Automatic annotation (TrEMBL):
Residues that span the membrane, as ranges: 12-30, 50-69
UniProt-listed InterPro entries: DUF350
UniProt-annotated location(s): Cell membrane
Name of the protein this chain belongs to: DUF350 domain-containing protein
Species in which this protein is naturally found: Flavobacterium tagetis
Amino acid sequence: MELFHAQPIVNSILYSFLGIVILLIGYYIIEKLTPENTWKEVVEKNNIAVAIVLAAFIIGISMIISAAIHG
């Protein structure tokens, strides 16, 4: 009897990378749709409101990706 099954671990890593790629694509799309550079607003201008909106977007998209991958 084999105690270690590699397939669930491989699937978990594969879906994790897939989720990260989809999240980055979503961020890139939002970055292109907004009139200002969001990263510049957050880092250089210390715009807390943009940081909160960006964080909410990332959390929301992450939940959607997680639900879609999980099934």
